[in-house]
Amino acid sequence: MPLAAETIRQGGLVAFPTETVYGLGADARNPIAVARVFEAKQRPAIDPLIVHVASPEEAGKYGHIADKHARVLMEQFWPGPLTLVVPKTELVPDIVTAGLETVALRMPAHETALALIRASRTAIAAPSANPFGYVSPTEAQHVAQHLSESVDLILNGGRCPLGIESTIISLTGSSPCLLRAGGTPIEDIERAIGKIERAVFSPDRPRAPGQLARHYATRTPLVILPGDPDASILWPGEKVGLLTLRPVEHPERYAAIEILSPKGDLREAAANLFAALRRLDSRGLDRLAAVPMPEEGLGLAIMDRLRRCAASPS
Ligand code: TXA
Ligand code: MG
Question: Fewer C-beta neighbours within 10 Å, C or N terminus of the chain?
């Protein structure tokens, strides 16, 4: 850890595990280090980064946490897969927030991540450690595959236990608003603070470009099946890979199959999702087909990622 923290302090890039996905971290107070993150990911400068902190007190240095719901959410869900967007303080360089007056804050529930942030004695700005637009990394190997040239150090923490990014809630408007479904089920959040508005996405107004229609995308085109995989469409002459929650009746119809959770558990499915998409994408198939999953609990975040993966490039 001292080496990784030293790398952060000197303006380097460290990829590190969190409970959701691997992050590509830089000192959030160092605009030049943060610029290297954008460069490494080829991420457009209009897409702000999440600032990772090791405690709610630290969060208060980077964001104004006056909103009445913020304290409740932090107390109940931190550390954990919940990112809060609040007005920023002057400690946060503009490049981190892409010029916005707000900042996204998160305290990850992962010992390695927390130890790195503490030892670095700063906050760590980190997007997911994948090339912009591609499937997020849930293993150190995924990071090495695409970013080994540009990252100074990769902390290998094995597989990310949750496997899907944090839920993002904006607390900057008149009422809390869901910007991205993720690892903290919206049902749990609504139980804590009441009904939450869903952001309306418009391509002309990408409030957060993680909300761009096409994102989390495989190179192989993916379609979401209208329903039952055994009764539905076949593509004659094509090698099709199937992504499904549970086993299907006619596996022989597909060139490859990824079963996300044999017992139909959406938590297990979320944990396996990105690695399964990467495996399917590496097999030289013509098409990927995904069986829709129930949009409850983590299913909402899973379906969000699959829809964005399926959206044709605009
Ligand atoms: O679980 C996660 O959140 C992972 C791990 C590494 O912490 N991080 C992650 O970062 O998913 P990234 O950069 O892939 O996605 C961050 C999202 C983007 O959609 C970005 O636009 C949004 O957060 N975001 C960041 N700052 C924002 C702000 N001030 N207002 C609205 N959205 C913001
Ligand atoms: Mg990302």
Answer: C
The alpha carbon of 305 and the centre of ligand 1 are apart by a number of angstroms equal to: 14
Ligand 1 centroid to Cα of residue 312, in Å, is: 22
- What are the tens digits of pLDDT across the range 150-161? 999 999 999 999
Tell whether the model's pLDDT for residue 74 goes beyond 70. Answer: yes
Residue 229 CB-half CA count within 13 A: 26
What's the one-letter identity of residue 247?
Answer: P
| Contact indicator for 169, 82 with CB cutoff of 8 Å | yes
Kindly state the tokens that stand for 94: 């503009």
Instruction: Enter the DSSP assignment of 82.
Output: E
Q: Which residues are close to ligand 2, an ion, with C-beta < 5 A?
A: 128
Share of the chain above pLDDT 70, in %: 94
Q: List the beta bridge partners of residue 219.
A: none
Distance CA 186, CA 183 (A): 9
Q: What is the dihedral of CA 19, 22, 24, 28, to 10 degrees?
A: -10
DSSP letter, residue 15: E
Q: Do 52 and 125 meet the contact criterion of CB atoms below 8 Å apart?
A: yes
Query: Would you mind telling me the total number of residues written for the chain in this entry?
Result: 314
DSSP assignment of 156-223, as one string? ---S-SS-SPPEEEE-SSSS-EEEE--SS-HHHHHHHH---EEPPP-TTS-SSGGGSSS-SB-SS-EE
294 pLDDT band, cuts 50/70/90, is: very high
